[in-house]
Write a structure and sequence with these properties.
With about 120 residues, this protein is of the alpha+beta class. The protein has one domain: Ribosomal protein L30/S12 (60s Ribosomal Protein L30, Chain: A). Helix content is about 45%, strand content about 15%. It is built from 5 helices and 4 strands. α3 links the parallel β2 and β3. α1 packs antiparallel against α5. The longest helix is centred in the N-terminal third of the chain and has 17 residues.
Length: about 120
């Protein structure tokens, strides 16, 4: 199984680990959307605060539109390595190709921190 790359940004493990943690906190104290369709709708409605896209999705076409949509709407996104871990962090027993945080709840500071780090990575930092 080859890894797909939907973005030019390579996210370090430390950042993706914090991102998974932020998702768990947001799941328990805020509001999240799970799955590609729900995530797409949240982006289109402009309510997504942070979008997660799994890197190991097959076929890649399932989630390839999400980073482009996020760029268009100026919504931050992060590509994480594992759909299984993404599913687990969002409270599912199965993997999830995409998830987004709609209301960060107690994870607000973590989300701000992740978004700031992603911006630095985008600028080549």
């Amino acid at each position: 199984m080859s890894k797909q790359v939907y973005t030019k940004i390579k996210v370090p493990k430390e950042i993706s680990d914090v991102a998974y943690e932020a998702l768990q906190v947001a799941r328990d104290s805020g509001k999240i959307r799970r799955g590609t369709n729900e995530t797409t709708k949240a982006i289109e409605r402009g309510i997504a605060k942070l979008v997660y896209v799994a890197e190991d999705v097959q076929p890649a076409e399932v989630v390839m539109h999400l980073p482009l949509l996020c760029e268009e709407r100026k919504i931050p996104y992060i590509v994480v390595p594992s759909k299984t871990q993404l599913g687990t962090s969002s409270g599912l027993d199965v993997g999830s190709a995409a998830v987004c945080i709609v209301e960060p709840g107690d994870a607000a500071d973590l989300v701000k921190d992740i978004v700031a780090k992603i911006e630095v990575l985008k600028k080549g930092g």
